From TrEMBL:
Binding residues for substrate: Q22, H123, N167, Y291, W398, E405, W406
PANTHER family, A to Z: GLYCOSYL HYDROLASE, LP05116P
Hydrolase recorded as keyword: yes
The name this protein goes by in its record: Beta-glucosidase
Taxonomic source organism: Micromonospora mirobrigensis
Coiled-coil intervals: none
Keywords: Carbohydrate metabolism, Cellulose degradation, Glycosidase, Hydrolase, Polysaccharide degradation
Gene3D superfamilies in the record: Glycosidases
GO biological process: cellulose catabolic process
GO molecular function terms noted in the UniProt entry: beta-glucosidase activity
Family statement drawn from the similarity comment of this UniProt entry: Belongs to the glycosyl hydrolase 1 family.
Active-site annotation: E168, E351
């Protein structure tokens, strides 16, 4: 028999997460402008199943029903993202009234059901007009991001309970600009460093804009992955350290006044005097997104990268073929505390979840015992980190709904709620009921 889940501290924030482009749809309604993901998805061969996010989960029209699902689940918070091109169709100028009005309605609906709105300002959907001007390679995009943050906070700052500036800037840099498998599809390898710096500069400028408009806490959500060095040579260990610096430290060290990691093959010319002070504007929460550890060894001679990513054996796998390693989350949380000490603000796990091939049975029910086991293990890992003295104050499941999963289209299901995309019918899975019973014992 499974041992009962340990209790979590009073006031622990239970939440679920989504992102605008993955669920909203309404891609051409009410003045919304195109984003880089609209352009990318409509380019042949970019998305596994040839789909787009034009309709996604139609959350733009069905948000009231989705808020009711949140209320029934019993979560205390809902992390959603605001679509920059819905608020500023070209990434500049005045706010689009119809676009901002949607988020007004959503926030009010959440508060009416006692669910805290947690708003992410950038979850990868850069307005295409800004990309045409250079995107995050262009320093000016950081300034445009701060102006956008000011517009949103002016309208919602009195009601949003936690602001998150950026979601996973490492992933947006590496997959979108380094390897070309995400929008905008650039393949720059280490020449993508300006994207890292300008995202972080935009974060710092947005923190100041938010502070001027609201007293709610401010955070950033970083993706982290504990490194498993596969090999026992000095070259393997150097490769592991290089990957750790790129994935886990590049977007955290400068936030906490440690500057950029040393010894990395990046061109620092884009960093101007005063930038690191802007980036290190104090944050109230560090958002931690965790899915799996990463196996690393030394790259073969002639490789453009100093490391090679290799599969980790000995773990169960998700439908994404990611290893299920709950203890990696405990290791990560304790490691952040040990690495940063008193510099580290309180942590909230802002994404944690898994994709499986969930199919309704003959009665229309969706049983997903693998997801229940995943959540059980990862929540126990969080509790172990808390017991070890790490200040973890919340956990958000990715995701409320099955959704449009970026380059994988509709082929991967992460949701607590099954979505039949042709009909948009929502069916809570058995994991939804499991989490509801955990939150509401």
């Amino acid at each position: 028999m499974t041992t009962p889940m340990p209790e979590f501290p009073a006031g622990f924030r239970w939440g679920v997460s989504t992102s605008a482009h993955q669920i909203e749809g309404a891609a051409r309604e009410d003045g919304r402008g195109p984003s880089i993901w609209d352009t990318f998805a409509h380019s042949p061969g970019r998305i596994v199943d040839g789909s787009t996010g034009d309709v996604a989960c139609d959350h733009y029209h069905r948000y009231a029903h989705d808020v009711a699902l949140l209320a029934d689940l019993g979560v205390s918070a809902y992390r959603f993202s605001i679509a920059w091109p819905r608020v500023q169709p070209t990434g500049a100028g005045a706010a689009n009234p119809a676009g901002v009005a949607f988020y007004d309605r959503l926030v009010d609906a959440l508060l009416e059901r006692d669910v805290d709105p947690v708003a992410t300002l950038f979850h990868w959907d850069l307005p295409q007009a800004l990309e045409d001007a250079g995107g995050w390679l262009n320093r000016d995009t950081a300034a445009r991001f701060a102006e956008y943050a000011d517009l949103v906070a002016a309208r919602l700052g009195d009601r949003v309970k936690l602001w998150i500036t950026l979601n996973e800037p490492f992933v947006h840099m590496s997959l979108g600009h380094g390897m070309g498998v995400h929008a905008p599809g650039r393949m720059l390898l280490f020449d993508a460093f300006p994207v890292a710096h300008h995202q972080l500069l935009g974060h710092g400028l947005a923190v100041s804009a938010l502070r001027a408009r609201t007293s709610s806490p401010v955070a950033i959500a970083n993706n982290y992955s504990p490194v498993r060095v596969l090999g026992d040579t000095d070259a393997d260990r150097v490769a592991g350290a290089a990957y750790d610096a790129l994935h886990n430290r590049l977007f955290t060290d400068p936030l906490l006044r440690l500057g950029y990691p040393q010894g990395q093959d990046f061109d620092p010319g884009v960093v101007r005097d005063g930038d690191l002070d802007v980036i290190a504007a104090p944050i109230d929460v560090l958002g931690v997104n965790y899915y799996n550890p990463t196996g690393v060894r030394a790259a073969e001679e002639g490789s453009p990268l100093p490391f090679e990513i290799v599969p980790l054996d000995g773990y169960p796998r998700t439908a994404f073929d990611w290893p299920v390693a709950p203890d990696g989350l405990r290791e990560l949380l304790v490691g952040l505390r040990d690495r940063y000490g008193d510099r580290l603000p309180p942590i909230q796990v802002t994404e944690s979840g898994c994709a499986y091939d969930d199919v309704p049975d003959a009665d229309g029910r969706v049983h997903d015992p693998e997801r229940i086991a995943y959540l059980d293990g990862h929540l126990r890992a969080v509790r172990e980190a808390i017991d070890a003295g790490v200040d973890v104050t919340g956990y958000f499941v990715w995701s409320l709904l099955d959704n449009w999963e970026w380059a994988e289209g509709f082929t991967k299901r992460f949701g607590l709620v099954h979505v039949d995309y042709p009909t948009q019918r929502r069916t809570p899975k058995s994991s939804y009921a499991w989490l509801r019973d955990l939150i509401r014992p």
